[in-house]
Write a structure and sequence with these properties.
This protein has helices at about 20-45, 50, 110-115, 120-125, 130-135, 170-175, 225-305, 315-320, 330-375, 385-405, 430-435, 435-440, 455-460, 460-495, 510-520, 520-550, 555-590, 595-605, 610-640, 660-695, 710-715; strands spanning about 110, 180, 185-190, 190-195, 195-200, 200-205, 210, 220, 410-415, 425-430, 445-455. The protein is mostly helical. α9 packs across α19 (about 610-640).
Amino acid sequence: GSPNPRSPTFLVPAGRGCTDIVCCVLLVVAIVGYVVVGVVAWTHGDPRKVIHPTDSRGQFCGQQGTPNEYGPVPPASPASPTEPGPSPAAPRCPPPLQICVSKCPDRYLTYLSAYGNPSSLEYYRDFCTSEFKNSRKVGGLWGRRPPCPWGDSRPGALTSGSLSPTQAPLEVLKDRECPAMLIPSTPLARRCFPAIQAKKGVIMVGNETTYDDGRGHRRNVTELLEGAKKANVVLETRQLAMKIFEDYTVSWYWIIIGLVIAMVASLIFIVLLRFLAGIMVWVMIVMVILVLGYGIFHCYMEYAKLKGEAGSDVSLTDLGFQTDLRVYLHLRQTWLAFMIILCVLEVVIVLLLIFLRKRILIAIALIKEASRAIGHVMSSLLFPLCTFFLLCLCIAYWASTAVFLSTSNEAVYKVFNESACPFSGQTCRPETFNTSNVTKLCPDAQCLFAFYGGETAYHKYLIALQFFNVFMFFWLANFVIALGQVTLAGAFASYYWAFKKPDDMPAFPLFSAFGRALRYHTGSLAFGSLVLAIVQVIRVTLEYLDHRLKAAENKFAKFLLSCLKCCFWCLEKFIKFLNRNAYIMIAIYGTNFCTSARNAFFLLMRNIIRVAVLDKVTDFLFFLGKLLIVGSVGILAFFFFTQRIKLVQDTAPPLNYYWVPILTVIVGSYLIAHGFFSVYGMCVDTLFLCFLEDLERNDGSAEKPYFMSQDLRKLLKKTNKGQPEA
């Protein structure tokens, strides 16, 4: 593109109007729809399904106001409820049922051994069905459950029926009124799992290595290991979490002190960049040259030392490929190749310094100017907290809506039968089942809870609503980030385009920029964040497909999917770069998103060398700053919490794991440093675009004076006519 014209009427910021109104309206409509989806989800959803387990009748365990509020845990998990018989009209086995109990069993016990012992039977009844415990027959609502001819359920599955404890034990077990056996169990996530433990490498359950399966056979407890392996991992994780929580309770105030130190160090580093940016950059460049020079010297010394040694003159082509890479280090040709490569790099870097020295000086001057700008807009350092708060709101709304949507399913009941029945597998209602035609045509049929689902239009579109929820999360999150970027850009642009700095700046530049962004440019921010959200949703979809195709054997599909993931990753990075600079142009000129993106892109392409130099210089300084801050605070935390500082040795709290507060301080320090440097990076990018616009639009005359600082004018040998230079 051609440089911007030198217009005498050029004013920054110019008179503004609302931009991208269509996208603004679309965002408002989408937010209203998102709220409606949330209200509908909150109306139909029930998060108790995530927290509280249910029995096989779909009733919650341990929840007040329900029939099973006394029982906190079900002793078994249901099998697949949708497994059919040989044909739709054939018999269908009911799924193994769950029963809510007041506590988990703490001993090995079989029903056959408990039947002849009144005290054992009394204990055993706590883990049987409510009808069995009440010692009365029940025919009504739930009916009896006959044994399944083509599948035996787990011994711990408990069922309801119409048998009393006075019946023969085999009849009770046949109809699954009680489990065939009890196993010592541990409550976890409101469920009972075998209490597996390892003592000296021996797997035990309840201090036993074998158990009676209730059918006269002794089994090894390792058969229970696979079923409870993940549960025990969760149990160990919970114990670890409790210890970590204890460490936080005794060290939280020291962690806060460490984070405050990181915040102060970040602020001091940004202030010092005004004075030390040039020194740090040139020291870095000199160190790179010296390191390369030492590498050349070392390669030459190794090359000379191998002269005359046996086998050192073998060429690389004659040697061929060797798995032991140390063989190549005994060849003179290897060190000669290293020396040539390092010499080429040294020459290239020296030539770049010769030809790009002025651009490096400009980058250093802009970094120093950014430090001054932040000094005049100190509130900008706290603005990321506002962005963080809004992002937390987006995450909270998305997560809660997702939970309510996923728990919007209703209890679905199906017809199960022992003999052939035309209604087998059909949906039924327990309240009216006994009076329906099903019981007349199929006397042994039962209406039992099958699973949580739904057949209404709302339930059919739950997947679409979840997809909309994810899409809106990305859109709103990107909008919040865009709002933060355009606000900071507007504040720093008002600093640059103030002819007399800081006298010509508005009283509250950050709040003024925030108001302009919301009042005039909500549509443009919605446009840019919408484009980015679409790409991110496509990336999430590709990741989901990749996860589902991991077990596939189609190599072409995997290759195509990998290519698509790579392409959209690159596209997302490019759109983020383009959006960031487009928001800066929006803050400066008040133009719409497409115009701002085009102008920003062409402006950067006309100054691509300056862009590359500034980007690398700022990346180095930010890396150095984060490394210095996080490393210093992390080392200080390590010596403190490990009680290696004698002055405060008795002050450090006793900990289960000293790495818990240390890692917390390190991660927190990095986030704090990243927040400070993100503001600094936005300031540098904004001043850089303003600087390029200033050079193209102004010529230093009285009508079109330069707005850049005096240091930048001296560096570029530019002057404003009629104004003395200090």
